[in-house]
Model the fold of this input.
Amino acid sequence: MLKYICNNNTIRSGDNMKNDKILIIEDDLYICDILSYKLKKEGYDVKYVSDGESGLIEVDNFRPDLILLDIMLPTMSGFEVCKEITQRYTNPIIMLTARNDIADKISGLELGADDYITKPFDIREVAARIKAALRRVNLSNSITDDTIIINDFVKIEPSSRKVYLNNTEIKLKPKEYDLLYMLSQNRNRIFTRDQLLDNIWGYYFEGSSRTVDVHVQRIRKKLDADTTKSIVETVFGVGYMMR
Done:
């Protein structure tokens, strides 16, 4: 039986002033109950459902600020749910998995998930990762930079965290945006994968450097024009940069 550490010494509810909404899509009702109870104590507005199809309905109805998504679900897998959500929304998704399988984690990241947590987990870690993910999204409220021109085709509006390709808005996931913005603010500087992991994903992330590669590939797929060089340049054997 999986055990979950539930400790009262978690993040104070006062840190969450706007009652961010969390949707939990998980078929284990024990996990749903313990997550819901603790996250409500932190000040979040929490709702949970037990299957993928219901989860997609609640994403539309509840409009969560963040989604906790189990991989193993009835009716449709967490991977399928993640793919559907990321086609319509940019909300952060943290995937929950009972298998410490790097292939599962990479699959989730490639489909648009922002992070993952392996079961069994400590509720303090879940709360900390939720807080970190929401903080990154909410940073847009304090950014007042002018429009950043990346090249003839791509521009960023930091105040709204919007990215445009040929004046058409392109939806980026939160970490895709953070990675693009960081590179744009440090032109001609080479970052190693570990440096990007530390700066974008932070202390609590346990993933490999493959995570960075996945996000760079997704940025390129969305923003590279057919006739130009890649928006993010690979420095072989080192990492990435933007010129």
In short: Residues 8-17 have pLDDT under 50 and may be disordered. The first strand starts at residue 21 and ends at 25. The chain has eight helices and twelve strands.
